[in-house]
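Repro case for the chain-ordering regression, as requested:
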Amino acid sequence: MLKFFTSDLRRNIIKILCLTTGLSIGLLLVARIYFDQTYDSFFENSDRTYLLYESYEYDGNYGRVPTVSGGYAPALKRDFPQVEKSTRFRILSYDFIMVLEDDRRLTAETACCADSNLFDIFNVGVTGGNPKDILVTAGECVIPRSLAEKIGGDAVGTRFTIPELNDNSLFTIAGVYDDFPLNSTIPRAIYFSMESFPDYTSGRDGFMGNDIYHNYVRVAPGTTVDDINDVLNSIMVKNVEENIREQIHLGVNAGKLTSHHSTEDSIRIMDRMLLLLATILLFGAGLNFLIITIGQTSKRSREMAVRKCYGTSDFRIFARVMGESIFYLALSVVLAVLVVFSFPDLCNRLLGYTPAQLFTTGNVWCVITAVCLTLLLLTGAVPAWIYCRTPVATAFRGNIKSRRGWKLALLSVQMFASGVLICLLVLVARQYMKISEVDYGFDYENTVMINLSGIKQSKRAEVVSGLKNIGCVQDLTSAYNIVGDGCSGNMVWLNTDPSKFVIVADNYWVNGNFFELMGMEFIQGDTFTADTDSTTQQVIVEKSFIDVLEKLSGERSDNIVGKTFSISEHDGEYTICGVVNDLHRGDIYSSDDRAGVWFPTRKTASVLYLKLTEINPDNMAAIRECVDSFIPDSNINVITVKSGIEAGLAPVRDFATSVFIAVLAILIITLIGLIGYTGDEIQRRAKEIAIRKVTGTSAMGITGLFVRDILYVAIPALGVGMAVAVIAGRHWLSQFSEQVTLSPLSMGAGIIALLIIIVTVTVINTLGVASSNPVEHLRNE
Amino acid sequence: MELQIKNLRKIFRTDSVETVALNDVSFTVTDGSFVAIMGPSGCGKSTLLNILGLLDNPTGGQYLLDGERVDNLKESQRTRYRRGRIGFIFQSFNLIEEMNIRDNIMLPLNNLSIPSEEKKERVEMAMKRMGIAHRANHYPSQLSGGQQQRAAIARAIVARPGLILADEPTGNLDSKNGLEVMELLSELHREGSTVIMVTHSQRDATYADRIINLFDGSIVETLNDRL
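-- result from build under test --
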């Protein structure tokens, strides 16, 4: 029954292996792209649900964030009849400890305050109580089912505290909702009523400032985004002062919820790159299948010709070949799924989700089936068409041996694909090196960070005194913000002209020894005076603050120590006591170029920085033990600053690994194709090789013939591949704040390396026959 | 070119069978001779010709070409030795299907350090001599059997080798074309080339100076017709 498979077993196994390699990675990438593209699409009427964004333009910098002041969604519902439903929530905390009444401590992902309409728009099943009632009752909350399962039993009625948010309040779980799917931008949070956290939600109905609310509206069919934006604009004009709107070009506008995730720059670019990889791998695997199948046509055409002689119709032959291809494809899909499911951790690390999560998203199997059907057309219909259109007499004469042009064309596509990927790999690796070598403006060697956000001041002081007693701790300081992270923006002005302001990056408060411990040298002045605290009106600024003062005063002064200014959120006038070099703030995607300011405090701020004699497992364990002794069962992370920085580089490193795996896969596929091609060519040209040898051509000369043939195809294909990689690479790089140059030289080196591999494989594959006795081949003829 | 073979042996071995193809064969071919090797199928004629043409090495014995031992050369050395020295003519012509006649004939010259103009000249002369100049741009499949064999002979002589080896050169031809091919070989012999030909045809053998009859890998008779 499987004679078609066993009759040319070696080639057929290779066909399956190539398809499996391409399918395993290709389908995984397709599933990941589908995952991204279907974010939030499972909610009822998601196509009519909109998210509100705030946009601003200041000092040439344009920004757009998916949070606005809390008043917009309710105002839209009130002022615009087309709005059927509206809701908003704000995030209170991430990764916090909840302490149950029975003293069990559980880590929860997110805590939010939401209004009572949340589940009207994000309609998942809720058990326990009515969410509309729960979300207006102080002290009550709904939790995701996954958390309820962790709590165990019937979680409804269970009471707990969140020390990080509020030491005393006891909250009651009044409802359990079905988890939002993984590909949702709506967090699987504990949703409290806004009444539960009056301090956090006091400005929830405002239209300016406090722009931390996620606002959503569902509109009636036929309503356009422009209609919504017109109303939003009129709400803003009515409620926000004109000078503020004008100065920062403030805007509030709506965007489709289902597009929110997929239109994010990093996701959009990454999905395009993944699509490129997936196409290359799937197409490459399909073409390889075709190359091998065409190599088999000589033998199988005779078989088909015999069938035709005995009356088999073209349709039956077509069906037969298609049936065989379905067999190969089905087997390869099964093997690919097995391979993919064998590496869940690798998949999770590189793509962010396990295969089980990716392959159970919505209708992903429909997309995968469509991909497989396309592959079937390529791998089944093309060979079937070849067999059907080959005349019987031609098949018997064996004149269809060649099809060399076909095979070379297919091989060139594979080489093109390899060229694209190898160049991308070179580019991604260089970009990784570039962002790894960024000068952050502070010294993070032997520095450890402990984030004590949510821990009471008295407890922090205890931790600090404990840490100071550890031998390996050379020095210790604290800061309100994580150094190098994003900062709040505050307005700076001179008292001589309060109408003019510049927005700066407010790092808030640090201890006086912060700059010395972090290796930030003063280029002017010095750190805060020794007895300073938060009431002292001193400030340390970055070098670029010189430009800020120039903008405000109209005069440039290179020495700004002693200059004074006012700043929003901080009362009074401040005097600059020191100037340090600019820090590199932000992440790999966006840098924050605003000038930074620091204010003094003698208290222990939320982020501790420790300078150790040496980073080693023992020292890290000692620090962790000390923290745990003061704050048991905490979720507090003790990490090296270096590892934090490296974690920030993970997206590039993981993409580099993904491209590397894709390169390996396509290289394997291409080289198998190359080996198959040269094998077929050797067989086809056996007589020619023998004759050339008889007439005095050396083994290297014979090998050279094959190498030349391959190079004729490889060089242009790889060249085009490099050009495509340059275009794709430029697009990929555009998302980063620090970009490596698109060096044709380094990509060229990658191409040359690939050429060397191709030539080596060709030489190894042909040298045997080129050195063999020509008599054998002439005898076979 | 003078050939001397002494006690030449060729044994083909497989896992279970050992076949003696040539058994203590000794003879000498003087420069400018025309030798025909005859015998029934499987007697070792082609094996002998392959060894004489340095396409294969003997299992034992000695083979001297112009006094130089060549029986123990490596494959690459044999290839180098053949260049320009030995021309081959096969029963099935062995032209390369993908190359036109001109390129087929050019093949042996590609391995020699000859100016390209001279190469072209030699090819044109060889084609003219064989009467196939008008077919220069045709492919082998577009030629008759006789024309293909003329092309093969042109290829064999284009490098002006001292030794021409022909393996049943008329075996695939009708009598008229066969006769023409033999006339051409005879002409080459008259011009001084050493020709060794394997044949089943008594008629073709009459063109040779000497006929060596092989049976079961041994020489059973040598006839010196013209000496």
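Ordering looks correct now. Chain B touches chain A through 26 residues (CB under 8 Å).
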